[in-house]
Amino acid sequence: MDRNTIIAIVLSVIVITVGMTIQTMFFAPEIPVDAGVVEETIEADVYLPESASGSITATGDTPDSAPFDVTAGEYTITFNPEGASISSIRLNNHDDNGKPVELLFKDADDANAFMMYSGKGLSESIDDVFAYSIAEHGTLPLTIVTFTRSFRTSDSDTDFIIEKRFAIPQNEEYMFQISVSFKDENGNRITPINDEGVAYTLAFGPQIGPAFESMSNNYDYRRVSLRYDDENRRDARFSDGIFASDEEKTLDWISLSGKYFAFILIPDDDVTIASSGAIQYTNETGVPQEDIVYIERAATASDSSDIYSFYAGPKVKRNLTIFESGESVFSVDGHDMKDIIDGNWLSWLENILNWLLQLFHRIIPNYGIAIILLTILIKLLLQPLAKRGMDSTAKMSALGPKINEIKERYPDDPEAQNAAMAKLYKEEKINPMGSCLPMLIQFPIFIALYGLLNTNFDLRGSMFIPGWIPDLSIPDTIFTLPFAIPFLGSQIHLLPILYTISMIFSMKITQSGSQAGSQQGMMTFMTYGMPIIFFFIMYNAPSGLLLYWSTVNVISIGQQLFVNKKKKAVYEEEIAEKDAIKQAKKDAKRKNRRK
To answer: How many angstroms separate the CA atoms of 298 and 171, rounded?
Structure first.
């Protein structure tokens, strides 16, 4: 592997890193009818005030305000009667440090998820205490939590009722539905609030878990995205912490997602959305970064409840697509929720590599070993492409004495050194650019493997070596300092150190002192400077990704040492024979001239 091969590898990693850094910047039906549990559709007159304040006041006695837990299927949800909201969403079958994953990352001072706000914006929260009831659905595997409370607008002396219902599946589906309705005392649907064309705002946030300390590295993120009808997902771009959707387009869904989990809010087709958007905060205490996503419901009359489907779970295709197959409790066909999964033009190759990874994992149920076996297989498949570069390195190593002779002949003339080196390469039929094409062919595999090992949900929580690498989706931490090191933090990771050492050693044996003149300084930087730079870039990389790169380096070192040992002597003998022939021709010419 010669200088240009090394440059190609480095450029590949740079392109991957830059692309990743840039990167780091549902026709839903109504809840099934069951008398007394899920709201019945009422054919009645509706009214809409021409203008009304967004300010409302609760009436009647204040119910019990104590929060309560509901466990059903995949979820354990903590409901708060204050605002008929949710303060915790825990996934029963996914762990985070030995406890169920907390999907709702919030501080004690933050508003709960699914808080409603009167009228437009997030200034008038409806945080009064609601009465509630819990019941089982009559025919479907659903737990129904119903909240109700009477209110009165500031410009009316007539009470109305806000009813909010949560339908939670008792099976293995990561979706629940929310219905919101306004009724008068006779049970008729009404729209009592009209604040600049908005009846109410429904928000969720402040952040999706698991909890994090900062978003300062490239290997985790929190992102607001949305999808318009018949369009691909778009990631929100904030301006001064504010993002607003295009009101000229029909919202399909809006989401808040991290690397492994996602919240996706899908309004029913019958719900008229005035606007949607998000607000982003950066805090010094509490939740480091908040992304509060909201939907503003238009102040239009309706003869049925507003239904919102809400996906809260893993960013795994099989979990996201079941809702479009008709086999789930809730059906959101046509919303293409799998679009939330990060992908690129090499997703097809990533799927193939993932199939191989899963195959090795079935043989040996340890993802660390599976990654190593996958790496070995890829190196074997690419060996015919890499062979030419390794043979070139071995031949340049055999030319070491001649290269040193050139350096001694032109000690202070880099241009002359380079010219003599080029002539030597030509005479020995060595093409320094010969290994670049094979590297370009391998480049897509490097990108696909990066995507696979950086975001693969199956690696989350997967142990490789107990006590050292308990989770391949996060950095390995051997100990934590009582202070923070600049650019690194307080956690000490061993794999980045091993990766850097293997990278330096790999580069040293691939150049073998074969450069002369001005190229020596560049190669010194490539040998030591680039690995140090990548040490900082990869320091917080997932252990699975670093395990792959370290294994690649170790295998490449072994291959190159083997080729050097096998071929160097052969090349030295060939070079000696050529030199002997050349010398014999020179001697023959001298004899002829003397005659």
So the answer is: 33
